[in-house]
């Protein structure tokens, strides 16, 4: 019996690669495995992306995805590794930058979760700088992040 095929993909291309392999493998729609593999993206963006001067959704770490296939070239799973998380961003942001998205998402969802005792983002020392991003709804981002956890 042959070993399953493993292909390593950088996250930016993972979604396109999975769609390609699903099509080549004869799948007309996303399989549950593919949905789960893609679901980690909103979670990783929330906890690892931040607004920088040049990019409103800049990844502050690297993501490495390895896709796993069966002998029929259907996606059967994936492994993801992260590296080089910019930990200093948690305690310091340059002017017009902000901390990781998840902190703002949680504060925007504070009315739904009063037991968390969260306040406005600008009341917290490490997230008060540059709280809003034009065109970005942090409450919707929190819902997407939360739905990704449910999917996984």
What's the quick description here?
With 152 residues, the chain is an alpha+beta fold.
Which structural traits does this protein have?
5 strands; Kinesin; elongated; 152 residues; 4 helices; alpha+beta; three-stranded antiparallel beta sheet; single chain; two-stranded antiparallel sheet; 18% strand; 35% helix
Overview of the molecule:
By secondary structure, the chain is α+β, with helices and mostly antiparallel strands. It has one domain: Kinesin motor domain (Kinesin). 35% of the residues lie in helices and 18% in strands. It has four helices and five strands. It has helices at residues 11-24, 32-48, 101-108, 138-151; strands at 5-10, 49-50, 58-59, 62-69, 75-83. The strands form two sheets. The chain has a three-stranded antiparallel beta sheet, with helices on one face. Strands 2-3 form a two-stranded antiparallel ribbon. The protein is elongated, with a radius of gyration of 18 Å. The model is unreliable at 6-11 (pLDDT under 50).
Q: Give the mean pLDDT.
A: 80
**Approximate strand percentage:** 15-25%
Outline the biggest β-sheet.
3 strands, antiparallel
Number of strands: 5
Name of the CATH superfamily: Kinesin motor domain
CATH architecture, please? 3-Layer(aba) Sandwich
CATH overall fold name: Kinesin
The helix/strand class is: alpha+beta
- The proportion of residues forming helix, as a percent range, comes to 25-40%
Instruction: Indicate the low-confidence ranges by residue numbers.
Output: 6-11
Give the terminus-to-terminus CA distance.
30 Å
Shape: elongated
